[in-house]
Design a protein that fits this description.
With about 400 residues, the protein is of the alpha/beta class. The chain is about 40% helix and about 30% strand. The chain folds into three domains: about 190 residues, 3-Layer(bba) Sandwich (FAD/NAD(P)-binding domain), CATH 3.50.50.60; about 120 residues, 2-Layer Sandwich (D-Amino Acid Oxidase, Chain A, domain 2), CATH 3.30.9.10; about 70 residues, no CATH class. It is globular and about 65 Å long. The chain binds flavin-adenine dinucleotide.
Length: about 400
């Protein structure tokens, strides 16, 4: 049977565009389906990435709109610590331009961008049939394989019956301006992070300076408090930072906090948010989706070489991306839950301990937003009462929590 294409990639976000580019470069016939008229719009992202992500994306410094060297961590009880500050640890990007560039790279390699919303996917004899909609008109597309890069609520995953991630953070994001008066007191190369069980239950709040008096702020919760309610509370609790912040655009967004139990099935792969490939400590998923896309393209190419599209042969994809980032995602997930189980008073004490010069130096030297466990485990090992907890946290989170309860206050 003559199929419409070799691979249908659903979603032209970072995961989809990068997978499509690599597959097109390998000579496969690729259709890249995107439901929005303009790729990247509307953005649901704060666009903070590591310098490493620029290299992974093969996008140069032109994407950078602002540089971040450190972070102020604020607790709901009023504690505060400044970390980092000596070198660029993260950069803010124009997320719309970023997605457009990645998509242009895919098109330049030969991928065919099609404006359409995929509404259904089903497996037929040795191929998949997608139903899509463009301007209200239904049409179908056949492909040997489908790559679901269609974000958190992946329709590819749902209609093909692939298991979904189990944990999510619900966010409100804000793009805003800082009033000229308030700007005088801002340190423009530091992000602000707000933590607290009642402030942002299960997650955190943030302000990211993006240069020239603009910021991206937001807050997320894992429930039951709505993000807008949490945002109002955060703004009221930190008037010195939020009084001068004038929102320009608001948006919502759901972040998967644990990867899906399986990122492949017969004739199908899931990449990026669709597979829950997101850093559980920060919710960042641009770096991880690009790494996973690289592995997805390798596996799909091999599937075509061997003419083998069953789940068994596509399992190599999951082994590949987990070998590179799975360990870190698992460690970060445990560390997040470790932090969530701490009381407000315990968090205060840790924040106070982090003000010591030795720990400040350690944090500054090892901070890495893609691999947060590296600095967090070092810090945990260096806090007297948290000694030995690092390794225990990762291997046996339950045991670590009992230990920390027994040993704090530090
Ligand atoms: C509030 C918030 C802030 C964030 N901040 C950061 C940050 O600072 N740094 C960071 O690294 N990450 C951040 N993230 C996470 C980051 O945005 C995602 O991890 C990343 O976008 C994942 O890329 P993706 O390609 O998998 O999915 P997406 O970027 O979501 O792309 C999916 C694409 O698929 C399209 N699509 C969906 N369904 C269909 C369909 N049925 N048919 C056709 N097309 C479809 C969508 O239109 C979209 O273009 C944030 C997320 C949120 C919610």
């Amino acid at each position: 049977m003559q199929l419409d294409c070799d691979v249908a990639v659903v979603g032209a976000g970072p995961a989809g565009s990068r997978t499509a580019r690599d597959l097109a470069r390998a000579g496969l016939r690729v259709r890249l389906l995107e439901e929005h008229r303009r790729v990247g719009v509307p953005s649901h992202c704060s666009g903070l990435i590591s310098p490493r992500t620029l290299r992974e994306a093969e996008i140069g410094e032109e994407a950078v709109i602002h540089r971040i060297t450190g972070a102020f961590v604020h607790t709901q009880e009023g504690g505060e610590v400044a970390l980092g500050g000596s070198a660029t640890r993260a950069v803010a990007i124009d997320r719309v331009a970023w997605d457009e560039t990645l998509c242009e790279q895919a098109q330049a390699a030969g991928a065919n961008l099609v404006r359409a919303r995929m509404t259904h996917a089903e497996r037929e004899n040795h191929h998949v049939r997608l139903t899509a909609q463009t301007d209200g008109r239904d049409w179908t597309l056949t492909a040997r394989m489908v790559v679901g890069a269609d974000g958190t609520h992946s329709r590819v995953a749902r209609t093909l019956g692939l298991p979904r991630p189990k944990e999510y953070a619900y966010n409100l994001g804000i793009e805003g301006r800082i009033s000229p008066d308030a700007r005088a007191t801002w340190r423009d190369d530091y992000v602000h992070v707000f933590v607290g069980r009642d402030l942002a239950p299960g997650w955190f709040g943030w302000i990211i300076p993006t240069g020239e008096g603009t910021v991206r702020a937001g807050i997320g919760t894992t429930g039951p408090v709505k993000p807008i309610v949490a945002y109002r509370r955060m703004a009221a609790a930190f008037p010195e930072l939020f009084a001068g912040l004038e929102p320009v655009r608001m948006y919502g967004g759901t972040i998967p906090l644990a990867f899906a139990p399986r990122s492949y099935g017969d004739h199908a792969l899931l990449v990026g948010d669709a597979a829950g490939q997101v850093k559980p400590f920060s919710g960042g998923g641009i770096y991880t989706s690009l790494v996973a896309a690289r592995h997805a393209a390798i596996t799909v190419r091999q599937a075509f070489e061997r003419d083998a599209f069953g789940a068994k042969s596509l399992a190599a994809y999951e082994r590949g991306w987990k070998r590179e980032i799975g360990r870190e995602l698992r460690k970060s997930w445990h560390l997040r839950h470790f932090g969530l189980a701490m009381s407000g008073a315990q968090i205060e004490r840790v924040v106070r301990a982090l003000r010591s010069p030795g720990l400040q130096e350690l944090a500054d030297e090892h901070a890495d937003i893609d691999y947060p466990s590296r600095v967090l485990l070092r810090l945990a090992r260096s806090l007297p009462a948290l000694a030995t907890l690092g390794a225990v946290t990762v291997r046996r989170p339950g045991a670590a929590l009992n230990l920390v309860r027994a040993h704090l206050p530090v």
